[in-house]
């Protein structure tokens, strides 16, 4: 899973992998910010939108393990590389949605492949999750 963040304010943030402080300056359009210590691509904070790509069950599970204080308040999950989904991933996505609701955060899915969207619709999860077309639309929903 790849985690990217976008911010322009330069505030320090803490890496969720190695716990070192990371100062995020103006970023390129893709928003990738590697931690200078461990190289994990991320940066968390309340005002930024964090995008996670290449979602799978273990990636969602690792998101659930991030400490509350360091968890991104605005999280956009990009499903563009996901063409199958299993019950474990769905269960973890529901847990993630509940956790975001509890912490007052936002969770939006974008670029959901038709077959995965069909699974969400069959399970009536399209009423639980915020699902949009692309990353730009997802970012607009976060503001």
Task: Indicate the mean pLDDT.
Answer: 75
Percentage of residues in helical conformation? 25-40%
CATH superfamily: STAS domain
Low-confidence stretches: 24-31
CATH-level-2 architecture: 2-Layer Sandwich
Structural class: alpha/beta
CATH topology: Transcription Regulator spoIIAA
Compile the SSE list and pairings.
Layout: E1 2-6, E2 12-14, E3 21-23, E4 49-53, H1 57-64, E5 74-78, H2 87-102, E6 106-110, H3 114-122, E7 130-131, H4 135-142
Parallel strand pairs: 4-5, 5-6, 6-7
Antiparallel strand pairs: 1-4, 2-3
Describe the structure.
The structure is a single chain. By secondary structure, the protein is an alpha/beta fold. The chain has one domain (2-142): STAS domain (Transcription Regulator spoIIAA), CATH 3.30.750. 29% of the residues lie in helices and 20% in strands. The protein contains four helices and seven strands; from the N terminus they run ββββαβαβαβα. It has helices at 57-64, 87-102, 114-122, 135-142, and strands at 2-6, 12-14, 21-23, 49-53, 74-78, 106-110, 130-131. The strands form two sheets. The chain has a five-stranded mixed beta sheet, with helices on both faces. A two-stranded antiparallel ribbon has the order 2-3. β2 and β3 (21-23) form a beta hairpin. α1 (57-64) packs parallel to α2 (87-102).
